[in-house]
Amino acid sequence: MEKVNSIIDNLPMQTYKGTSVLDAARSVGINIPTLCHLADLTPEGSCRVCVVEVEGVRGLVTACTYPVSEGMIVHTNSAAIREARKSVVELMLANHPQECLSCQRNLDCELQALASTLGVREIKYGGERRQFAIDDSNPFIIRDNNKCILCGRCVRVCKEVQCCNTLDWTERGFNTKVTPAFDEDMVNTSSCVFCGTCVSACPVGALTEKAMNGVGRPDKKVKTTCPFCGAGCNYDLN
Ligand code: FES
Questions:
Q1: Which domains does the chain have, with CATH numbers?
Q2: Is the pTM of this model over 0.95?
């Protein structure tokens, strides 16, 4: 496979052609923040948190989707980049419930951690917020689309890892949300196998397990071969 030479933050490196700027940077210990990216899933480039500068390219590009090429010079942490990332997070928070203290993911939330790292101290933008009903049609999982940042990680793990194709995008624009495709009957006809992989993939508090609310499946350790799933599918090799 062809290799290419590039420079990321003054660090010369050689990587395989087609490697993303994100993977190339991470391979030498340069941290670029991400929200919609998950290793081994198709990169989506939807959150815009991983933006970087490539010399000779107008504007910022998303490191998770942009491939390194021969002679490329990349900057990942300039003042302009940090400001752009901060604006992205501020816009997400403008349409996000301000209830971190009562959220199950408090102190374990990627959006919260990123806001802190980027120095977001206030909700800068006002305006209308989404008002979705909480979906508890799944016997084990609660979906709060008001907290969803539309990263698509749950949709992609459901399709690409579990091959269930239960989750997908519905509606458009401001009303875009993730729901079970075709509003399935979650108990009787859904393709959902209740594996919990989507909950594990969610970076915020949009998907949580009912067991954590004191109802539904009790927390119990089981043997599993699944590398992602925090819930366990009861598949026992022995
Ligand atoms: Fe690259 Fe979301 S992590 S756009």
A1: 3-82 (3.10.20.740), 130-238 (3.30.70.20)
A2: no
